[in-house]
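Example S7 (structure tokens).
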């Protein structure tokens, strides 16, 4: 049976989601609230992979300002966010509050080249009907008084915002569990295969069988063997994120984004600064180079951070793909296996739309046109080399998809 003619499964079908990050938890929540029987299998604790080192920025028009699949996915997901967060909080019945703000982003330029790029971006977004405002230096300082003297202009996008990634993932888990989903942690999947009864998942503690499996294991998705298929070309990309304490006084008004860093201000005075982009394999260490590079970058655009308190550094491995798009859709070889992986730096942003696409595909048999660009089938015959140590990507800490932004 091929993915194109596969009939949809029945609503009470058993589904195992492999991976307990923000994508896995969002998918589990959407499936269980649509009536499925859901279990999540996680090799660590829930939300302890790339999710815990995410700044949670919701900025599709910075990530991909030109038309294309990434912007289409991000725009649809952003439109879902208000209702999705409200539903998750309601279903979770209390617990830790979820920081969630839609007060915009201000992307700054520190030279004429950057300002020209922002002008072009502003025109392209305006032509697409997306609200934005180009600011000269005076207007930029008026919008964000903490900006430093290096800033020559900025682009304000009011619809953007952020969500607390760890709190959001914890709320997704609570909401899914409240509706009947179960979570099994510290159990790593090693192989997925088709069997007569459905889809088998092998682990060191033994096997399990479900009618449907959703592979949402982030950077580890390509490390899990799938019968009849080459591993997904997903590689880990290390990102380091700093947590600072704002030095007092008037806080930042919104997310600030420069060519070398981004800064997320929480209401409690916490400030997140990210994020490095490093091809170092499965190396999850924080490094002096990473920390000092981010501190230098944030001091350039926000001099007030020189007096900030240093609280923490977090490290996550983001699941990168060759085209920097996620992998969402049916497996070619294992009937009943679907992928929801490879979201790179956009997992938090794309969680609602990924959950919706998977639920529609698996439970209703509906294939959204958005899936065409992110199908796993596009990687047939493609492999990826994962560095084991030593090499750092030359995109130290800039625009999340710098190269893609300028070409997509």
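Recovered sequence:
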């Amino acid at each position: 049976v091929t993915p194109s003619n596969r009939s949809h499964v029945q609503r009470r079908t058993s589904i195992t989601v492999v991976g307990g990050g923000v994508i896995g938890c969002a998918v589990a929540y959407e499936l269980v609230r649509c009536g499925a029987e859901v279990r999540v299998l996680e090799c660590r604790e829930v939300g302890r992979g790339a999710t815990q080192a995410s700044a949670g920025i919701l900025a599709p028009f910075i990530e991909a300002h030109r038309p294309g699949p990434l912007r289409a996915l991000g725009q649809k997901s952003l439109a879902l966010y208000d209702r999705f967060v409200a539903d998750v909080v309601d279903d979770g019945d209390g617990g830790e509050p979820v920081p969630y703000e839609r007060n915009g982003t201000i992307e700054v330029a520190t030279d004429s080249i950057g300002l020209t790029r922002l002008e072009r971006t502003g025109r392209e977004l305006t032509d697409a009907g997306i609200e934005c405002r180009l600011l000269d230096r005076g207007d930029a300082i008026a919008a964000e008084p903490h900006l430093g003297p290096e800033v020559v202009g900025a682009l304000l996008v009011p619809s953007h915002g952020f969500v607390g990634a760890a709190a959001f993932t914890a709320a997704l888990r609570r909401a899914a569990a409240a509706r009947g989903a179960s979570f099994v942690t510290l159990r790593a999947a090693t192989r997925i295969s088709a069997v007569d009864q459905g889809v088998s998942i092998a682990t060191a503690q033994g096997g399990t069988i479900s009618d449907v499996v959703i592979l949402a294991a982030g950077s580890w998705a390509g490390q899990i063997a799938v019968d009849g298929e080459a591993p997904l070309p997903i590689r880990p990309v290390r990102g380091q994120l700093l947590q600072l304490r704002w030095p007092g006084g008037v806080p930042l008004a919104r997310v600030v984004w420069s060519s070398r860093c981004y800064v997320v201000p929480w209401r409690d005075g916490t400030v997140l600064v990210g994020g490095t982009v490093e091809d170092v394999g499965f190396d999850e260490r924080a490094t002096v180079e990473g920390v000092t590079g981010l501190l230098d970058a944030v001091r350039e655009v926000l001099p007030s951070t020189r007096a900030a308190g240093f609280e923490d550094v977090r490290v996550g491995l983001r699941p990168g793909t060759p085209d920097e798009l996620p992998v969402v859709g049916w497996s070619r070889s294992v009937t009943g296996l679907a992928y929801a992986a490879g979201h790179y730096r956009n997992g938090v942003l794309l969680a609602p739309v990924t959950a919706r696409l998977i639920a529609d595909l698996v439970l209703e048999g509906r294939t959204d046109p958005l899936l065409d660009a992110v199908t796993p089938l596009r990687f047939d015959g493609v492999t990826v080399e994962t560095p084991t140590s030593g090499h750092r990507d030359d995109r130290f800490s800039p625009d999340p998809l710098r190269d893609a932004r300028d070409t997509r």
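Notes on this example. The first strand starts at residue 14 and ends at 18.
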